[in-house]
Design goal:
Elements lengths: L1 E5 L8 E5 L9 E11 L1 H8 L14 E8 L11 E4 L9 E5 L4 E2 L6 H6 L1 H14 L7 E4 L5 H12 L3 E6 L2 H9 L4 E4 L6 H13 L3 E6 L6 H6 L1 E9 L13 H5 L4 E3 L10 H17 L6 E6 L3 H9 L6 E5 L2
Parallel strand pairs: 8-9, 8-11, 9-10, 11-12, 12-13, 14-15
Antiparallel strand pairs: 1-2, 3-4, 3-6, 3-15, 4-5, 5-7
Bound molecules: NADP nicotinamide-adenine-dinucleotide phosphate.
């Protein structure tokens, strides 16, 4: 099969298109012919060495495709079924092994490209808005990188729950997309002289005070400003590091900020059981079918051009989801 490998820890240039032996499904696994694979920021952390990985490795953990073979003991799926997945390693490949218990059914009317684009960022937006902090009607909340993959989905889910959403973005085009997703106020944080000093008063002015929650997937460049946007007992949700990891943190800052809470959640802890995983996925797919959740695929690359896809994502040149078209 054709696949992409990260040959060593480094920049996007360590990604190579290679021929590898076809995998075979182990017990309880499906072998899937990939139609499309999702690109996610975590793939870049793993490629770059921020998260420890063996090298070479095939990046990616998300995709959608057609089941072509069943491992021993699989009784609830058949060859020919179309499935999606969000947490299976080695997904930038023509063939992927997916544990049957983690496979997600794709409802009629949802294309394989959208099915590949939704799971990881969609499940993330879902657990952030419903479980990490259950967004309530009347809340005013802040979502950084509002035109990103998670940002567009989280904005839509929070607005559907009755929140007023403030977002940050870095371009006029991203501002338009964020407003289309339902953001009430969009702040061009690239235009602020000093983000840490200038963002909190702006947000507080818009909101009429501090916020109950800030969703921050940007990390290093926004973290201090995010903390300063919270009201007493507010929740800082640091869920990513697209601008780099946040340095070590003095816990007394939570006290000084007004008995604040800080969490660093990760998707695996909110999709532990098959029931929880599929429950969230079913709600997301149902919203797509109903037309109440829009999945924007902003960029598509052929499998062999994974390097360019990583360059675009890390270079802030993408909006919504980026996928690799594989089969
Ligand atoms: N914890 C979890 O469970 C979980 C799961 C999925 C994703 N995540 C995290 O969520 C965040 C968003 O992921 P995503 O896949 O949806 O990515 P994304 O938001 O589509 O892309 C990242 C965005 O971050 C913003 N950004 C700000 N400073 C940046 C910088 N120095 N370099 C690159 N980007 C910068 C850019 O938007 P602007 O140009 O508008 O600033 C960029 O488009 C990532 O941190 C990711 O790791 C966490």
């Amino acid at each position: 099969m054709r696949a992409i490998q990260a040959m060593r820890a480094g920049g996007p240039d360590v990604l190579r298109s290679v021929d590898l032996p076809d995998p075979t499904p182990g017990p309880g696994e499906l072998l899937v012919k990939t139609a499309a694979a999702g690109i996610n920021f975590v793939d870049t952390y793993r490629r770059g060495g921020m998260y420890p990985m063996p090298f070479p490795h095939i990046p990616g953990s998300e995709g959608a495709g057609v089941v072509v073979a069943l491992g021993d003991g699989v009784t609830d799926w058949a060859a020919g079924a179309t499935i999606a997945w969000s947490d299976c390693p080695a997904s930038y490949a023509e063939l992927v092994r997916v544990p049957a218990a983690r496979a997600l059914r794709i409802p009629d009317g949802v294309g394989l490209d959208v099915a590949a684009a939704l799971p990881l960022q969609g499940l993330t937006a879902h657990y952030l808005a419903t479980s990490t902090y259950p967004v309530r009607a009347g809340d005013t909340i802040l979502v950084h990188a509002g035109a990103g993959g998670v940002g567009l989905l989280l904005t839509q889910l929070a607005v559907a729950r009755g929140a007023r959403v403030i977002t940050t973005v870095s371009t006029a085009e991203k501002e338009r997309l964020s407003r289309d997703a339902g953001a009430a106020e969009v702040i061009r944080y690239d235009l602020l002289g000093n983000l840490t000093a200038d963002l909190p008063p702006l947000v507080r002015d818009i909101a009429g005070g501090g916020l109950p929650v800030v969703y921050d997937g940007v990390g290093r460049s926004t973290f201090d400003a995010s903390l300063a946007c919270l009201r007493p007992r507010g929740l800082m949700v640091l869920f990513g590091a697209s601008s780099g990891p946040v340095p070590p943190f003095d816990i007394q800052r939570l006290n000084a900020g007004g008995s604040l809470y800080l969490t660093r959640p990760t998707l695996g802890d909110y999709t532990v059981t098959t029931e929880e995983l599929r429950g969230r996925a079913e709600e997301l797919f149902a919203a797509v079918v109903a037309g109440t959740l829009t999945v924007r695929i902003g960029s598509r690359f052929p499998l062999a051009e994974a390097r360019a896809a990583h360059e675009a994502l890390e270079g802030r040149a993408t909006t919504g989801k980026t996928i690799l078209e594989v089969g």
